[in-house]
TrEMBL record:
<dbReference type="Pfam" id="PF02492">
    <property type="entry name" value="cobW"/>
</dbReference>
<dbReference type="InterPro" id="IPR004400">
    <property type="entry name" value="UreG"/>
</dbReference>
<feature type="domain" description="CobW/HypB/UreG nucleotide-binding">
    <location>
        <begin position="21"/>
        <end position="191"/>
    </location>
</feature>
<keyword id="KW-0143">Chaperone</keyword>
<comment type="function">
    <text>Facilitates the functional incorporation of the urease nickel metallocenter. This process requires GTP hydrolysis, probably effectuated by UreG.</text>
</comment>
<feature type="binding site">
    <location>
        <begin position="25"/>
        <end position="32"/>
    </location>
    <ligand>
        <name>GTP</name>
    </ligand>
</feature>
<dbReference type="InterPro" id="IPR027417">
    <property type="entry name" value="P-loop_NTPase"/>
</dbReference>
<feature type="region of interest" description="Disordered">
    <location>
        <begin position="218"/>
        <end position="241"/>
    </location>
</feature>
<keyword id="KW-0547">Nucleotide-binding</keyword>
<keyword id="KW-0342">GTP-binding</keyword>
<keyword id="KW-0963">Cytoplasm</keyword>
<comment type="similarity">
    <text>Belongs to the SIMIBI class G3E GTPase family. UreG subfamily.</text>
</comment>
<dbReference type="InterPro" id="IPR003495">
    <property type="entry name" value="CobW/HypB/UreG_nucleotide-bd"/>
</dbReference>
<protein>
    <recommendedName>
        <fullName>Urease accessory protein UreG</fullName>
    </recommendedName>
</protein>
<comment type="subunit">
    <text>Homodimer. UreD, UreF and UreG form a complex that acts as a GTP-hydrolysis-dependent molecular chaperone, activating the urease apoprotein by helping to assemble the nickel containing metallocenter of UreC. The UreE protein probably delivers the nickel.</text>
</comment>
<keyword id="KW-0996">Nickel insertion</keyword>
Amino acid sequence: MGAHHDDVHDPAEPHGRALRLGIGGPVGSGKTALVAALCRSLGPTLRLGVVTNDIYTTEDADFLRRAGVVDPGRILAVQTGCCPHTAIRDDIAANLDAVETLEERFGPLDLVIVESGGDNLTATFSRGLADRQIFVLDVSGGDKVPRKGGPGVTSADLLVVNKTDLAPMVGADLTVMSRDAAAVRDGKPVLFTSIREDRSAHTVAEWVVTMVEAWRREHGEPHHHAAHSTSHGNASPAAAT
Ligand SMILES: Nc1nc2c(ncn2[C@@H]2O[C@H](COP(=O)(O)OP(=O)(O)OP(=O)(O)O)[C@@H](O)[C@H]2O)c(=O)[nH]1
């Protein structure tokens, strides 16, 4: 996956556990909407857990709970209290604790989604936290954004360009965005979505299913993990209740 160049964490032992999928991207691009859409499409067939990150609140977790897309207990909120990228890349302890707590409580799980707080184009997940990552842009930032590159755009396993329904309103040319994204992504996939129009984001969901299936083939069926003995620090995830 697209790890940041100075990633200090090793990948977590992959055998017999859920695929951990990071979803990042700028503020308001549709990350929470995508998480809700994936829960809608995948919830009936995959065993899911969700970790949300907000700086001071549990807003995203609260939104997902209200949306009723997944059992509320399976959503844990991490309050980062700092720049979102710090909590997904540098000091990943609170997020790792949340992921492992979900696996202990509800395991075996097939997929744990970790949604980052909104950040800038440089934000990527550590390989120690996410096995695969999606970066979500939206068209309202203008069609020049993919061209600007940055680790999120260039190295994410999947780039999603959301809010295509707004393209005519903001004068964004999707052909230009597609061409520019392809030029900087070295063949990695790009999907255009309007989650407003397709509330189950079916193309992204299909991509996620292929990732989960490949993960299982490579690392075996997920099995239940007993309470984790390693402490990742003092931060503890707050149940989104
Ligand atoms: N028009 C349109 N609006 C969308 C679409 N997807 C999401 N939105 C709206 O965009 C706003 C932001 O969406 P969120 O899913 O909260 O975005 P986010 O990236 O999670 O935001 P932060 O967590 O604050 O960074 C909300 O009002 C959504 O309803 C879309 O495809 N089209």
